[in-house]
Amino acid sequence: MSTEDRRRREREAREALFIERAHERIREDGLLGLQMSKLAADCEYATGTLYQHFDSREDLLAAVATRTTRERAARFRAIPALDLGTRSRMLAIVLTDIDFAAHNPDYYRLTQYLVTEVVWANVSVPRRAALLEAGQPISVAVHAVVAEARNHGDLPPARAISEEEMGLGPWALNVGMQSLANAQGLLDAYDIHRPYDHLIRHFHALMTGWRWEPRLDPDEPSVVRAETERVRAALREAGIGDAKAGQEGSVAD
Amino acid sequence: MSTEDRRRREREAREALFIERAHERIREDGLLGLQMSKLAADCEYATGTLYQHFDSREDLLAAVATRTTRERAARFRAIPALDLGTRSRMLAIVLTDIDFAAHNPDYYRLTQYLVTEVVWANVSVPRRAALLEAGQPISVAVHAVVAEARNHGDLPPARAISEEEMGLGPWALNVGMQSLANAQGLLDAYDIHRPYDHLIRHFHALMTGWRWEPRLDPDEPSVVRAETERVRAALREAGIGDAKAGQEGSVAD
DNA sequence: GCCGAAAGATGAATCGGATTCAAAAACCGG
DNA sequence: CCGGTTTTTGAATCCGATTCATCTTTCGGC
Fold it and tell me: Distance (Å) from the C-alpha of residue B171 to the closest C-alpha of chain A?
């Protein structure tokens, strides 16, 4: 029946509102600035209503992360079809992630906080699944690029490593660097600056180590820079690059 | 005077007791199982006394992490002097860290939680500094191995990358893999298993990509395994390996 | 050995927020 | 418009970190 239908729609709209406002709060005041009762009041609902959508504060945070993860993941969809060599497309994936992180510093802090056992334990099962699923398109993109590289002969044929396991390297490198870069004062203590530049160089070393052609010497700053620029240009042209990319405005900070 | 001296010693002993018991608590019941008043009672002190040592719960957690980081860092000291090629010693560093993480799962979760902005913000400045400083020996070891590799010609001479920045690659790879491996259900969702085996392979790819000799093909499982075993044996022989290594027993879980 | 000041320890009271739930309101089909 | 059902409400509850007024201990001088 239609009544029931409208109900569902309204419920979803309200949930979206909660998530949207929560995200704003986090952007403006940080994770600590998010208080359940304040948020509810902001949205002109009672505290209890908020709890009809989210089992707990952590659950809400997971929902926020899921929403942003979807936006993030969407950016990767078009990459496999880019008019670039396979290795450059792999770089495109890394650069896209770096850019996203640069524009959404809260997002990384949030996910980092979320996967912490203490927090993760309080996220309801369906929301955990949803968050994991939201990232799927990224894995799909990576898989596609690695598979094509193998078919095309850019990358030696699979020995004992799947496409996903191949992608795990840059993924871990990425996550690790984000993590180190975000830890207040950590890299400074070791007099390391511009962590993302290093991420790119180590990425090239990693790919070259796997014999992904055309090999590129990570220790040739000008070559690395040129390749970065070339790929960034392709991304920009495809409308994937920087700034707001036709998504809801909310992310563009 | 001597009285004042004794006072200080007693105070330090008490602080050590708090940290030790807190660590036990965390090992047994997880981070959530640590409650300030319970901990104080456990140690037969009043809650307020606990707060004379630690500004906040987070501060205490940082102290626990610092203590364990010292133990962890101590394991790296002897590595530069090991009777192995420079590249193998670099691997030794990575393996040592993997082993430590395997024996101290809580430690990684704890640090991961700590560097989260929300938590880090509540750690007092001196404790932050102490935690950062505790890790210094690791950086020293890495620096030594990289520098020797360059002098010895195993690694091309520095172009535009310092020893620390070189070490940043494996470091980020390590941290990232730990992070991914710790996120409940994440890697399973991508059908990836044995993350540490992959960490080792990607590590070799990274080193080979930087032309660190003797190069080693990450896609030769038997070669990789043999090298891992060889280095593990050397570590065991040097008493750095697995299990309790003459440190306080507390870590050996 | 005794005294008053200073330093340290105590734990009950306070505080901040997440979460709950009994009551009130809105909604429903007839 | 009605009785029953579903939603919403927000004040009360709960939980644990943190504080602080009070009590104890320590200490140097007498």
Answer: 8
